[in-house]
Amino acid sequence: MTAPFGRRLCQVSESRATGGYRLFSLIDTDGPEPLPGQFYMLASERHWEQGGQRPFLPRALSVAETGPAADGVRLDFLIEGIGPGTDRLCELQPGESVCVNGPLGNSFSTPRELHQISGPPGRKFDAVQPSGAILVGGGIGIAPLALLRRSFAAKNIPTRVLLGFRDAAHSGGLDELFSCCEIRLASDDGHAGHHGYVTDLLAAMLEGDDAASAAVYSCGPPQMLEAVGAMCAEAGVACELAMESPMACGYGACFGCSMPKPGGGYLRLCVDGPVVRPDQVELAHA
Amino acid sequence: MPDFCGIELKHPVINASGTFDAIAARRVYGEALLADFPFSAFVSKTITPEPRVGNEPQRIWETPAGMINSIGLPNKGLDGFLAEDLPQLADLPVPLIVSVMATGHDEFARLVKGVGERDEVAAIELNVSCPNVHSGLIVGEQPAETEALLEALRPLTSKPLLVKLTPNVANPAEVAAAAEQGGADAISLINTLKASAIDPATGEPGIAAGHGGLSGPAVRPVAVAQVRAVAAVVRIPIVGMGGISHGTDAMEFIHAGASLVAVGTENFRDPRAGNRVAGEIAGALRADRSGAPIGDTA
Lengths: 286, 298
Known about the structure:
Helix content of chain A: 10-25%
Mean pLDDT of chain B: 94
Order of helices and strands of chain B: EEEHHEEEHEHEHEHEEEEEHEHEHH
Number of helices of chain B: 10
Oligomer: heterodimer
Structural class of chain A: alpha/beta
Low-confidence stretches of chain A: none
Distance between the termini of chain A: 29 Å
Structural class of chain B: alpha/beta
Strand order of the largest sheet of chain A: 4-3-7-1-2-6-5
Number of strands of chain A: 16
C-alpha cells in the first residue's frame, strides 16, 4: 500500500500531556492505516514558516498508535519539544490542521521473517520456531514499539517489552501506550525499575536459554541502538532497529538522511529505512 | 503550451536538479506519481563521470525560511546512470533533462557524448559550480572558463545545452553572456548560495562539511535580482529558480525575464509543489493580462 501522492490536511482530534511528552491524534481521511515503524512528515498548517522564520521543513514522526476513526484513520504521535518544529507540534490544539505526507518508510518484520532474512548460511532458520519478540525502547523511542507491540499481539507473537527512561518526568506515555502488557523498566535515576540502562535488562535477557531464537526490535537514542545492535550481533540474535535522522522530505528527494553502510556509501533512512538491521549500517558512525 | 529550446512542455514549471528523485518517489507513491507528475520536464540529479557516495552526515541544516545542504553529489556515475537510472527515468511522462558535472573538458565531453546520444534525453544541463582540475578555478565563476567549456562541448551534441549558473559571483550576467557566446541554448539560475550555520549546542558548523548551499524562500530576492541581471544581457531563454514555493513567487521570476521556472526546496515540503505552482501561475496569468508570455522568448 503506497502513500497518497502529495501532502494533505488532517485535523487534530486530541492533544494532551503524558509524562514529559505530548500525545496528539490526527484524523486522516485519505491515507491507509500505517504499519509499525512507518512515519509521517508533519507541519502545522498555521504558524509554520510564516514570518520567514523556523520551523521551515516538516518534521518526521513515527506513529505510536493507530486505529479506525469515524471518518478515516486515527494517527497518534508521541512528541517531545526539543526545537522550533517539535515545539510547534506540541502546541497543537484540537480542530487545528496539520500538513501530512505519509505513511512513509518501511516497517518492522515479524520474528519469523527476520529469522529468514538474518539466518546464517547453512542454518535453517525457517525451520526454527521463533521464541518471540523482545522490544527495547528508550525515551521517546518507545513510540513505534507501541504500535509494533499491538501488531504482534494481534498475531499471537509472544512479546516482552523493556523500556528505559531518564527520570520520572520522562516516563510518560507508558500508561497510555503499553497499558495492557508486561513491561520491565529501567531508569537513569532509579525512580522506577532497574537503576541503570535498559540495555542492562536486555543483556540479562539475552543470556536466557531461548534468546537465540528470539528477535529484538529497538528504537531510542543512537548510543542505545549502537549498544543493542552490538549485543545482538555478539549473541547471534536477529535484530531490527528503527533509526532517526534529520530529513527534509521523507520520500528520497533531499538525500539528507544518509546513514553510513558497512563497506562504504550511504543508505537513505527515509526510503531504505527507517527500520534497518544492524548489519546494514555503521552504527558507530550513526 | 511553452516551447523551450524546441521542447514542447505542458506548463512552465520544472524541478531544480537534486531536489526530486523520481525513481525513489515512484517507489513511495506508486503509479499516482506518473499520473499526476508535478513537473513539465524532469531534471535529473547531477551525474559525474565516476560514482560518488556523497558527503558524510550531517548534510542538511534548517535555517530561517530555508535550509543549508551539503550532499556531495551522490550518484552512480555515467555508466551506472545509463544502465540503471535512465531506463526508469524514460518511463516518466515528461521530457528528461540530464544534469552533468565534471572537473575537466575531457570528462565533461565524455558525459555530454554519453548522455547526448541517448534518445531518452531531451536536453543536458551543465552544472558548472565545480573546479577545473587544470586551472583550479571554479568554471562557473569565470566567464572565460565558461565560454571555453561551452565551445568544447557545443559540437558534441545537437541536444540543447543549459548552463546552471552559480550565484556566488560578483557578476553572474558576465558569466551568462559568456555561456551564450560559447553556444549555450539556455541559462538556469540560481544554484545555492554558499552558507554556513553554527549549531548552538556545539559551537561548530551544523553541516559536517563546514558549509553548504542555502536554498528556500530566504534566497528568493537574490535569485530574482540575478535573473533580471542575466535577462538584460542574453537572448537565450532563462530557467529561473530560487525559493519558489508559490505561483506568486514564480511570477516574480517570469516578470524578471524567466521563460520557465524551477521548484526546488519546496518539493521537500510538498511533493506536488510543481503542479500546484503551475496551476497558480496559470491563475495569475489569467488575472494579469500584462504577464510576460511564458516560453516565448522571440
